[in-house]
Records
---
Amino acid sequence: MLHLFSDRTDAGRQLADALLEKGWDRAPDQPSLLLGLARGGVEVARPVAERLSVPWDVLVVRKLGAPGDPELGIGALCEDGSPLFSRFWMKRLGLRPEDLSDLVESRQKDLHEKILKYRGYPLPLLPPPLHACVIDDGLATGISAEAAAVYLRRHGVKRLSLAVPVAAPEAAESLERPGQLYDEVITLQRPEAFGSVGSWYEDFSQMTDERVLATLERRRAA
């Protein structure tokens, strides 16, 4: 039965329960690293990592919003700054990558500022983990999670999982491409009438930089 999550922390606890039921705390090939997508995925990742006793970090992604509709993700950047565009939305909106060059440049600058603010250095992936799990607060178009997968595969991660509380069915299905994007996509809910990620939370207040830093500080303290 579909339900609303109280907030991102509640969603993370429920996601942790589901992963424990799958035996992730006992499986020999469980992820050795969890990565919360900044910004909303950070608060979801923390309780999952604590329950599974797995190290975690922040993975910085920046969405590229559609002209006139910045909430519609038609592209994304991950930590190396390489843009990834949604073929579907670019074709539907009649856009070319060069049409978004100014936006990409602006978001690349913002991306590097966030990396410096949240971690201070690039994500350490040497040697790359054999199995990593990306966590976010939800999937709408899925473009940010796709950019994260492309980035992690490029840096040698062999097995890659994605775990989110709620997802648009078509987004989740498109990302489950073993050996290419995600080997498995774990969701608690895939409502047909999806709407938006925030519509599945009672409290979906904005994740500020201060909240991200506070959550990361709790990790360091632990």
---
Amino acid sequence: MMLRNKIAAIYGAGGSLGGAVARALAREGARLMLSGRNLDPVESVAAEIRAAGGDAQAARVDALDRDAVGAHVDGIVRRHGALDISFNAIGLQDTQDIALVDMDLEDFLRPVRIAMQSHFITATAAGRRMKMQGSGVILSLTATPGGIGYPNVGGFGPACCAIESLSRDLASELGPHGVRVVNIRSAGSPDSRVFREAVEQGGDRAAGFIDKLRDDTMLKALPAMDDIANAAVFLASGMAARITGVTLDVTCGTTSALNYKVTPIAFVNRGGTDGD
């Protein structure tokens, strides 16, 4: 197990991606300290992990409350002696599908404010403890608009850019103390709750949008939640001991409107052999 007995705190663990990462870390032996503003979904994930033989505890913690997060981290260290992994997966309450010129200011600012407040609070709380112990990994999650211009995503795009910038800057400060800070960028997972609900509510229009996202990738695919979770396991493990201050792209090669420029063609064997 790559993460045996590592102590991991996950904020927003009741969400689909937070839960997927929690399950993946638990499978690799991590001991999970799961939290969220609503306890029931967090406890559900913790119970599932325990039923599978893992170690998980659930707590109600608001990741926007600096005192609550500080007390949570202090409690983890007091009970377990360390905090090895911190991952923030809370929702940003973003409004999308509206052009910026038509968007209300508050709808634009909300995800940026939530992103900066929660990630600053959780990452610095973890960083202070990890700096003292001389080790640790702080992870975050963004999406395609963090890397390219993308229409109709409102404040979500700037929020992603801000998270990635914070991750880089914090890595530069904590690196000399043995602490790594890495962001994961996803293209959106069709099996996540957000996408499933969008298809249920939006029908063919929503399904068509997901097809467009898929067509705009080099691999003509979208990452599943397990792909994101596996990336988190790798980054939290010793196998990524020399990776910090970067965003790991797990977008299947998302570009800006690639599908308008490249058409998949069938592979033609021209007589070559492996190794040629």
---
Amino acid sequence: MIPPDALLYIYEIRGETAIELATPPRSFIGLWNEDDFAYLFFDKSEDDYVRKLVACSRSILGSRHEMRYKDWQSGLPEQGITLAGVHVVPPGAERTPHDAVVLDPSVVFGDGSHPTTASCLRALKRIVRTSSVHSMLDLGTGSGILAIAGVRMGIGHVLAVDKNRLAVSVAGKNVAANRMCSRIRTLEGEARWFVGGHFQLVAANLPFQVLTDLAVADGVDRHAFWIISGINEQQGRVLKELFAEQGFETIVHYDAHPWVTFALARRSGQ
């Protein structure tokens, strides 16, 4: 786990982001890849290594940043935090309840401090309490917090997906730390690739454009419930209309300005 006061050295790479790191230095934390850029994270300066890496690939070294880990994300306090009745603790915590979620978010999204994460957990708990949910698809899993919490709440099988390879790696480690490898599978890929499967519940804490694509995708109505987050009020209205056209109705709505989270259920008879 990264200490709060540890320095992060972050290098932005543009162009060829499918960079192969055959022998990264021990200071290497991970690579965060997006569509046309990537961020390399280290716990000490690696200027020479990154310059050589860029020189051997079709990429351009952009910005370089130094910041404390606590300024990148808040991290979990030693005693952990409780969200929607789920106790989330860091690895190595002195007192770890048997039903707690052990979480090391590293440098990816999902340490529990963001309002959308807390709202998704509230929606997840409400659905699981009122309905029998055996399977879940977690799109944009990040650290894996929703997937792990879902199993803690009684969901039998979860597929946790993220397009970011660092997130998939971190989520996989958290799944293993919680001894859930037999119940949670982590995969790298685009969210739209997995909507055609059959899951009772889909959680999607994702950007607006990705969510609009999912709302009109083939197979969206195969799932009984959706949890939607990562958007503002105006975007939420658009998405509710799109899902309504697919046969869904809103069953819960949480507002944590500027973010909104809502849960949808497939209408009876649909």
---
Amino acid sequence: MPLTAFGYSDTGRQRASNEDQYLCLRVGDSPESAHVVAVADGMGGHAGGQVASGLAISALEAQIAGLDAAHLKSEPDATLTAAFESANREILRVAAADDSLTDMGTTMVAALVAEADVTLANLGDSRAYLVRRGVIGQITVDHSWREEARRHNMPMDEIARSPFRETITRSLGVDDSVRVDIFEFRLEPGDRILLCSDGVHDLLSDSEILRAVVAGKTPEQVGKMLVDLANEAGGRDNSTCVLVHYEPIHSTTGAVRRDREPAR
């Protein structure tokens, strides 16, 4: 198969439970099969965080259920956006029915890969990276106060001291509507896609992530290596990653960002 995918998650060294969830789903049995992969990082305490991330992943699975690879290839952005909107509604519904879950929410980053075409969607600070020809690039943009402050050229020492530095500015389960970032690009032979929670990217530099991705011969090896490195760096959070490897005959270029406004 041109595509192989693998997910790995660990509680870490300082948390009692794992609020992260991931998905690796193959649609179809032919060489043209599509893959849907995702990472969700729950917020709102271990109970609420686990529930919210689980609801998000379940909503994505439900959106994919019954669809074939041809449909996913023809409407990838609409499919992912609908999944995020469904997840948001379900998290709000469940939270409204249980006072103990009032503050729950979750990030989610998801990729739909159909042959060489990739569509990414994200809310929050769980990230997607592309590794191509020995170079790593972050595709998604963090929805966080820290990232917004950095983009407004606030000094890094001020960002590090701010009480808002860990604040997520967009996520599932907070507002009645969501604005999902959509990115589209085409894979080249040898490309690697990495989705990960902040338990990985907050503790590892891009160069450390790149070395692990390049060193691992399989997605399984890379996933285990990244989680082990995050734990060696302190393991202060849950760490989760999903790897997609692409090894066909040919392909082409570039990543484009599009913001999708909430449905009216």
